[in-house]
Amino acid sequence: MIDHDAIDELLAGYVLQSLTGEDATAADRLLIDHVPECTDCLATLDAFQGLTGDIALVAEPATVPDTLVPRLHRSLDGRRSRRMPAWHPGRLVAAAAAAVALIGVAGLAITQVDGGTGSQLLTQADLQQVTDVANRNDATVTPLGAAEEVTAPGLEEIYLRGTGVPTPPAGSTYRLWAISPAGAATYVGDFVPDAGAILFEISIDPTAVDHLLITVAPAGSDPGEPEQPVPWAAAS
Amino acid sequence: MHDPGEDLELHRRLLGGDRTAFDELYRRYASQAYGLAYRVTGQQILAQDVVHDAFLALWRAPEAFDEHRGSFRTFFLSMVHHRGVDLVRREQRLRARTEKAANLEPVTDEDPADAVADAGYLSVRRKEVREAMTELPDPQRQVLEMAYFDGKTQVQIAEELAIPLGTVKTRTLAAMRKLRLALQETG
Predict the structure, then answer these.
(1) CB A197 within 8 A of CB A166
(2) Is B64 in contact with A109 (Cβ distance < 8 A)?
(3) CATH assignment, B1-119
């Protein structure tokens, strides 16, 4: 029997970002395993999430410093092109021919939020290139739940591909981390699969990475530190 | 006046990379976002970072907003809040709160056109939200404000108030349910 009062307690704490420890882990699991399939919980989550926008109005509006607009415009001008990764025409044709395996790849949403360290690490990959690498005899293809990590000797990047990846809960995003052999976590970027498909290039030297980690986080939040991996991405 | 329908139209244009739509959304929400970020972080420089990064995230991933799940206003201000809390927790050492929110310049110092814009939809909703908050029993409002504006975890709140963690959870849920009901009725 599902205790929706207990779930609502977790959802209330979740949207306020006030959960820690076991409660945070339980909420993450609920958001993956139960909430997406439960209309009541989805409605509660959306309503509570909306309240966090409403409560904002309790704070007095304040005059924004004059320096913010030019700073923001500089950032916008400098980053506008990242929304449309460059595709080599030849590869685009090849990728289109192979797109039967990964529907909707062109619509992948990569939404790094730190504006700095992670912003250059995660880009949409070239499908044909990933396929070629995976087919090499010396390639290493590591299962990562519904996804696969693909790399090969001599490469300076890692690829992540997958289908059947569940959509993250409303208001959330998947967050990708690279974990070094020493256990240090590097934030790579945020993403949302399109029709369950993911296909990414991670610009990190594979020899510096022990494994990849995928967590779920509120969309637009700062990366902070990685928490529990999402169940679908648990290493096999 | 901040018509939610106009927000949706601006968001649709934003999806197509329309910079003027972005600028208009900035004009509509920057003051509120900055006031919120300042209230949460207690530092003007941190508040600027929060607002900058929130608008940048909006520009770079406007598809993160789903109009079927709520209004643009609540989506965006919720994002600002999340980023504010995240930043506070990362920058605890900077949280001396030497600047008090009471010293912040009031919005009336802004361009009169902005003040007029805020006098519409946002100010009406602000009044509703504040009334709903006032209606909450003090213990419930207290835990909600500690979590929301102070960025405290439920464990920290329990320790600070010397009450069981379960009581914090219960009060938080009760507050959220009452607010949901009150604001559904008015909104």
Answers:
(1) no
(2) yes
(3) 1.10.1740.10
What sign for the dihedral angle of Cα A217, A49, A13, A166? negative
**Type of residue numbered B144:** L
CA distance A59 to A64: 14
Contact state of B104 with A60 under an 8 Å Cβ cutoff: yes
Task: Give ipTM to 2 decimals.
Answer: 0.85
For A93-236, list the strands marked E by DSSP: 109-110, 122-124, 140-144, 147-151, 158-162, 172-179, 185-192, 198-202, 211-218
Residue A105 CB coordination number (10 Å): 23
CA–CA min distance B45, chain A (Å)? 10
Per-domain boundaries in chain B: 1-119, 121-187
Fold agreement (B1-119, B121-187): no
Residue A53's Cβ-count burial label (10 Å; 0-12, 13-18, 19+) is buried
CATH topology of domain B121-187: Arc Repressor Mutant, subunit A (1.10.10)
Domain regions of chain A by residue span: 4-58, 68-233
Which one of B71, B79, B150, B178 makes the best mutation probe of the A interface by having the most chain A beta carbons within 10 Å?
B79
- A61 in Cβ contact with B31 (< 8 Å): yes
- H or E segment at A85? none
- Alpha-carbon distance of A33 to B70, in angstroms, equals 22
Return all residues near B26 (Cβ < 8 A) that are at least 6 apart: A69, A72, B55
| CB interface of A with B, residues 133-152, below 8 Å | none
> What are the residues whose beta carbons fall under 8 Å from the beta carbon of A70, sequence distance 6 or more?
none
Q: What is the DSSP letter of B110?
A: S
CA separation for the pair B57, B73 (Å, rounded): 15
- Is the CA virtual torsion A15, A21, A26, A28 positive or negative? positive
Among the residues of chain B, which ranges form H helices?
Answer: 4-15, 19-41, 44-60, 72-90, 112-118, 121-135, 138-148, 154-161, 165-186
For each successive 10 residues of chain B (187 residues), what is the average pLDDT? 79 92 94 94 88 90 86 93 85 50 51 47 87 96 96 95 97 97 76
CB spacing of A221 vs B147 below 8 angstroms: no
Per the model's pLDDT, the better-predicted residue between A219 and A104 turns out to be A219
pTM of whole model > 0.90?
no
